[in-house]
Write a structure and sequence with these properties.
Blueprint: E1 5-11, H1 16-26, E2 32-39, H2 45-52, E3 56-59, H3 68-81, E4 86-90, H4 98-103, E5 108-112, H5 127-136, E6 140-147, E7 157-164, H6 171-198
Parallel strand pairs: 1-2, 1-4, 2-3, 4-5
Antiparallel strand pairs: 5-6, 6-7
Bound molecules: 5-O-phosphono-beta-D-ribofuranosylamine (GRF).
Residues 11, 13-17, 46, 90-91, 111-113, 125, 179, 182 line the site of 5-O-phosphono-beta-D-ribofuranosylamine.
C-alpha cells in the first residue's frame, strides 16, 4: 500500500506547476502522490498533462449543478472518495467552496507569482501581476506559497523567494523568470507542508 500523502491539484489553465508537482512526485522529491486533478475549465491543457501521467481528472463547474450547495457537496464528496489529504492550487482562479476550506484547514496551499502581500487579491493573476510590477518600477519580485483561507491570496505564508528585476526586464521576461522559480519552489513548499503536518 502506498502510504504517501494523497494530493488533489486544482488548475484552470496550462498546468506547468501541476507538471512540476507530477515530476517531483515521480522522482521522489515530493512525499506525496497526486490522485486527482480538478479543473475549472474543460479545455485546460493541464488536463492533458494529468491524463499523460495517468491521473484521474474532474472538470468542476458550479453552474452545472442545480444549486451552489449541491456543487459544493459533490466536490467535497469527491475529495473524500479519493481520500485526498492535501490540496494544491496551481493556477485555479476561483475561491474554493467554504465547506472544502473548513474540511481542509491548514492542508491547502496556493502559489502566487509575486511577493505577497503585495500584488495579491481578486483579479491579480497571470500577466496582470507582472505588468503592474514592471509599471511600478519595482526592483524585485518573486514567488509566494501560502496556506489558503476564505480570502484571495491571504493565508499564512509558508515559503517566499525573490527574483531581481533589471531595467531591461519586460512583463514577459519577468513572467518567465518568476515561473521558472515557481516550478522549483512549489514542490519544495508542498513537501514541507506534508512533512511538517504528518511529522515525517
Ligand atoms: C502561476 O503563475 C501561478 O503562480 C498562478 O497561476 C499560474 C499558473 O500557471 N497562481 P500554470 O498553469 O501552472 O502554468
Amino acid at each position: 500500500m502506498d502510504s504517501r500523502a494523497k494530493i488533489a491539484v486544482f488548475i484552470s489553465g496550462g498546468g506547468s506547476n501541476l507538471q512540476s508537482l507530477i515530476d517531483a512526485s515521480e522522482d521522489g522529491r515530493l512525499s506525496g502522490e497526486i490522485v486527482l486533478v480538478i479543473s475549472g475549465h474543460d479545455n485546460a491543457y493541464g488536463l492533458e498533462r494529468a491524463f499523460n501521467a495517468g491521473i484521474d481528472t474532474f472538470v468542476y463547474k458550479v453552474k452545472s449543478y442545480p444549486s451552489k450547495e449541491d456543487a459544493h457537496r459533490d466536490l467535497l464528496e469527491m475529495l473524500k472518495e479519493y481520500e485526498v489529504e492535501f490540496i494544491a492550487l496551481a493556477g485555479y482562479l476561483k475561491l474554493l467552496p467554504p465547506p472544502v476550506i473548513a474540511n481542509y484547514k491548514n492542508h491547502i496551499i496556493n502559489i502566487h507569482p509575486a511577493l505577497l502581500p503585495k500584488y495579491g487579491g481578486k483579479g491579480m493573476y497571470g500577466s496582470r501581476v507582472h505588468e503592474k510590477i514592471i509599471k511600478a518600477g519595482d526592483k524585485e519580485s518573486g514567488v509566494t506559497v501560502h496556506l489558503v483561507d476564505e480570502i484571495y491570496d491571504h493565508g499564512k505564508i509558508i515559503m517566499q523567494k525573490k527574483v531581481s528585476i533589471s531595467p531591461q526586464d519586460t512583463t514577459k521576461s519577468l513572467a518567465a523568470k518568476v515561473l521558472k522559480l515557481e516550478h522549483k519552489l512549489y514542490p519544495e513548499a508542498l513537501n514541507k507542508l506534508i512533512c511538517e503536518t504528518k511529522k515525517i
